[in-house]
Amino acid sequence: MKGIISVHDKAGLDAFARRLAELGVELYSTGGTHKALLAAGVTVKSISEITGFPEILDGRVKTLHPVVHAGILARRDLPEHRAELERQGIAPIDLVVVNLYPFVQTVTKPGVSLEDALENIDIGGPTMLRAAAKNYPNVIVVVDPADYGPLLDMLASGNVPQPERRRLARKAFQHVASYDTAISQYLRDPQDILPDSFTIALSKLFNTRYGENPHQRAAFYVEESVTNSNPGGIVSAEQLHGKELSYNNVMDADAAWTAACDYPAPTVVVVKHTNPCGLASHDDLAEAYRRAFAGDPVSAYGGIVAVNRPLTLTVVEAIGKTFYEIVIAPRFDDDALELLRKKRDLRILRATPPSLAGLDYRRVVGGLLVQERDDIPDTQMDTKTVTDRGSTDAEMRDLLFANRAVKHIKSNAIVFAKDSALVGMGAGQPNRVTSVMLAARAAGDRAKGAVMASDAFFPFPDGIETAADVGITAVIQPGGSIRDDEAIAAANARGMAMVFTGQRHFKH
User: Fold this and answer.
1) Does residue 99 contact residue 144 with C-beta atoms inside 8 Å?
2) Is residue 186 helix, strand or coil?
3) Which fold has domain 235-350?
4) Is CATH 3.40.50.1380 the classification given to domain 2-187?
5) H or E element: which one contains 114?
6) CATH 3.40.50.1380 region(s) of the chain?
7) Which candidate, 310, 304, 303, 277, places its Cα nearest to that of 292?
8) What angle do CA 441, 445, 449 make, to 5 degrees?
9) How far is the CA of 14 from the CAs of 23, 37, 49, 93, 141, in angstroms?
10) Is position 204 annotated as part of the catalytic site?
11) In the chain, which residues have pLDDT < 50?
12) How many whole angstroms separate alpha carbon 295 and alpha carbon 469?
């Protein structure tokens, strides 16, 4: 049995190769792998002893040779293939162990040039992997060091079953596909964010217990991306305590953490079913929590709490015995973490702010919708007062706070806010006035003197009138309706201030 080993990831390599040699596998290798195995005292030959040809062009050409690929690709069940190998004096190759240069890690280092990137594109490795995987009934192909141990056990037993060979072949093809995806991303023009065709490479982080419902299987994957190699957010979070994350936990945690990190001031967000039901900014983080919780104490039960500042003991004491599924923060004071850990099942996540690079994907049957992220800073927002009365400084602060909040809530979205805190919210309704009514019901008396934000224009003045009836004093909305004049007139009639932004924030 002959095998070729050429790996960048040398984890477990010495012990694996040494055991292969003990099992009678004649090993050949190239470049750095060859030197590493010789240094470890493993019996291994140079690939040149198979090809009869030296490695040339600074190692660019080592395994690209008919003797190598005929030995890999020959079908052992075809007499004519066996005869051809014999006529040409070519020995079959039964094992290919290859993993590729970490292209993403290489090209995302500071100062890497195009020339450096091109030199790190492996040619011979993918070619051998594809050849071995194509011929998996006859050739074993391995790309993952995690498969070394099980494979050695099977080789020692004298049989590597066909289902296992097929599984290893699938991993090899995926390894090459992910590698090619990274190269394609790197070579893409940065302005060409929506090319005619592209692929997405994903690596599994873990299986969840189930999907949105118990009858659905699910897993959490991280995108392997050249353009967003350090995504931060929940995908990079460290779990410090609690049960494993579920599918819904991940969705809600992402919504909470993204919303909290969207605010520059100390902010607490409480999320339920991906919608912020509580949100407040305040220099005193414990007070921010109390105000966020007051936004909707009923819905807060079983929700997710995200805090965009280090979590202190005073905040944890303010949380008290309220049941939450997850608490997320960038850092935890030791005494705060100790107290939180007394809640046995509470999931505690330490996370970094999410990167807003990359694209948003939305699955539809048979395809994907792809778009840029909804990320426009306030400094690029062209606000315009359209009513007779302008907003006060306090109202404008709350309007901007509410306008930032509304983009994190499902359309049709309405936010009532006062003193940098959400006091009422309406989400996901088929018409806007119903969302206003829901926000008013949640706010109750707190609506008096509050402001309102809408994620899109008001198609009729009824939403403005309903808000005025419960005490809303100022409104921020994109504008753009054919009935804007009616909405402005309704606001003027009630003495309200209204600001147009020209920017819609639908979140379906």
Assistant:
1) yes
2) helix
3) Cytidine Deaminase; domain 2 (3.40.140)
4) yes
5) helix 114-119
6) 2-187
7) 277
8) 110
9) 14, 6, 21, 21, 18
10) no
11) none
12) 20
- pLDDT of 102 reads 80
Task: Please state, in angstroms and as integers, the Cα–Cα distance from residue 110 to each residue in 103, 106, 230, 356, following that order.
Answer: 14, 9, 13, 19
Distance CA 132, CA 3 (A): 11
Q: Where in the chain is the domain with CATH 3.40.140.20?
A: 235-350, 381-500
- Does 273 participate in catalysis according to the annotation? yes
What pLDDT score was predicted for residue 91?
92
Q: Give counts: helices (H), strands (E), the chain.
A: 19, 21
> Which phi and psi angles does 168 have, rounded to 5°?
-65, -35
The two structure tokens encoding residue 182? 């990274």
Only one residue has tokens 């690029």, namely 380
The catalytic position among 2, 10, 134, 241 is 134
Q: Say which CATH superfamily domain 381-500 falls into.
A: AICAR transformylase, duplication domain (3.40.140.20)
Residue whose structure tokens are 């330490």: 350
**Which of 280, 274, 270 is closest to 404 using CA atoms?**
280
Contact 90, 70 (CB under 8 A): yes
pLDDT tens, 145-201?
Answer: 999 999 999 999 999 999 999 999 999 999 999 999 999 998 998 888 899 999 999
Over the stretch 19-41, which tens digit does the pLDDT of each residue have? Answer: 999 999 999 998 889 999 999 99
pTM, entire model: 0.90
Whether the CB-CB separation of 441 and 425 falls below 8 Å is answered with no
Q: Active site residue: 8, 10, 241, 273, which one?
A: 273
Supply the pLDDT for residue 118.
Answer: 87
Q: For residue 412, give both structure tokens.
A: 């049709």
The residue among 120, 100, 101 whose CA lies nearest residue 187 is 120
